[in-house]
Amino acid sequence: MTCGTVAFMAVDWAVIPGPRWYQGELAAAAAGTVARADTPSRVVQAVAELRFAVGNDHRGTLYPAAVPATGVFVGMIVEQPGGPRGYALNTLLDWWGCFRPEPGYDTYDDAAAGPVEITEGIMQRVRQAAPALTRLTADFRAVEHRRAITEVLRLLALGWVVSDG
């Protein structure tokens, strides 16, 4: 089992800035494991490791590396059934509208688009995959995740609205 999305392997996770607790080598290792994992449970574990490498769940903040990590998560949603898809969807749904960029690290320097605010960069990655996600909602093999996929698409249409409450 390998992820057909190779683009995230080209990411140089070590040069992406972040707070002192961001470790690019951990993000790189997790992304590499996602690509090489041979069981669904190992993919889920690697995706979890990547999630925790690119953000701080306790503070509700995301580091710049969350933008390319979103590409990995979207790849899991589109290409991997079962647990990997579910975990990746849950990550996006957990982040959406609840997480903010880590103070002092609010932009990601996208090689193609230039500097982009983190949440906008995440939305761009999801927006690029929206046609594939829409097709997936009609795929009977994705029925267990249809509601979550539909919710991600609905949130994308609304934008990244963070409540202060």
SSE topology string: HHEEHHEEEHH
Biggest sheet details: 3 strands, mixed
Using the alpha-carbon principal axes, give the shape.
globular
Radius of gyration: 15 Å
Q: Name the helicity range.
A: 40-55%
What proportion of the residues form beta strands (DSSP E)?
5-15%
Question: How many separate domains?
Answer: 1
Q: How do the strands line up in the largest sheet?
A: 1-2-3
Overall structural class, as computed from helix and strand content, comes to mainly alpha
For the secondary structure, the number of strands is 5
User: Uncertain runs with pLDDT below 50, 5 residues or more?
Assistant: 1-7
From the N-terminal CA to the C-terminal CA, the straight-line distance is: 41 Å
How many DSSP H or I helices?
Answer: 6
Q: What is the arithmetic mean of pLDDT?
A: 90
Please characterize this protein's 3D structure.
- The chain is mainly alpha-helical and 165 residues long.
- The protein has one domain (7-158).
- The chain contains 6 helices and 5 strands, in the order H-H-E-E-H-H-E-E-E-H-H.
- The protein has helices at 24-36, 40-53, 66-79, 83-95, 118-137, 146-158, and strands spanning 55-56, 61-62, 100-101, 107-110, 114-117.
- The strands form 2 sheets. A 3-stranded mixed β-sheet has the order 1-2-3. The protein has a two-stranded antiparallel ribbon with strand order 4-5.
- Helix 3 (66-79) runs antiparallel to helix 4, helix 3 packs parallel to helix 5 (118-137) and helix 4 runs parallel beside helix 6.
- It is globular and about 45 Å long.
- Mean pLDDT is 90; it is low at 1-7.
